[in-house]
Amino acid sequence: GAVVSQHPSWVICKSGTSVKIECRSLDFQATTMFWYRQFPKQSLMLMATSNEGSKATYEQGVEKDKFLINHASLTLSTLTVTSAHPEDSSFYICSARRGLTNEKLFFGSGTQLSVL
Amino acid sequence: KNEVEQSPQNLTAQEGEFITINCSYSVGISALHWLQQHPGGGIVSLFMLSSGKKKHGRLIATINIQEKHSSLHITASHPRDSAVYICAVSLRGSNYKLTFGKGTLLTVNP
């Protein structure tokens, strides 16, 4: 089956530093990737939609200058949390859509970010 | 009111029991997804439905578009089924963006 690899699984960083999270589709081309955030005991919330070769579309309330998304190829999207603060500590997870057909999404394993 | 409502919020069952988790939504959708999230956080997509019923092993998912309701059933439940089950919908015309329910925490005891 289709596999989406997400790295790192967890990261601890100091306040003010930047953290990059990678999401790769290993055996298919992902025309669209999605980035989500999940706070403890909360539901997943969509942050942004990333289409290969174009600018990401951010959801209302998500700062595009703080959460930089790059989707440079059909198999890789990255989320960079810039100048991270403790309130950015959360579980971040990506998903990928294979092609343009009506198929289910494939999820990465998630990244637990802790900002000290 | 959330666009996607799940019930129950928590469910504890004994091994072998038949499990039902319900999902109701209030908007027009192009598809409904059932997801499984394990304690480590990773998510597996179980089903994507736009009509009718799908079965995979011990899992069955149904959807009634007119009633805006879906159910996920687990037959002969097992402790390894313990996880959070999440209902999510793709809103019509939204390019596959998902709106999520809050999830149902299922615990199956041996």
Structure description:
The complex is a heterodimer of chains A (about 120) and B (about 110). Chain A is mainly β. Chain A has strands spanning about 5, 10-15, 20-25, 30-40, 45-50, 55-60, 65-75, 75-80, 90-100, 105, 110-115. In chain B, strands 2, 4, 5, 9, 10 and 11 form a six-stranded mixed sheet that branches. The interface between A and B is medium-sized, with 23 and 23 residues.
Rg of chain A to the nearest angstrom?
A: 13 Å
First CA to last CA of chain A: what distance?
Answer: 37 Å
Average pLDDT value of chain A? 90
The radius of gyration computed from the alpha-carbon positions of chain B, rounded to a whole number of angstroms, is: 13 Å
SSE run of chain A:
EEEEEEEEEEE
* Low-confidence residue ranges of chain A: none
Unreliable spans of chain B are: none
Range of strand content of chain B: over 45%
Summarize the helix and strand pattern of chain B as letters: EEEEEEEEEEE
Give the structural class of chain A.
mainly beta
Helix content of chain A: under 10%
Which geometry of chain A do the CA atoms define?
Answer: globular
Major pleated sheet of chain B: 6 strands, mixed
* Secondary structure category of chain B: mainly beta
Mean pLDDT, all residues of chain B: 92
So how many helices of chain B? 0
Q: Oligomeric form of this entry?
A: heterodimer
Strand segment count of chain B? 11
Which range does the strand content of chain A fall in? over 45%
Count the strands of chain A?
Answer: 11
Compute the number of helices of chain A. Answer: 0
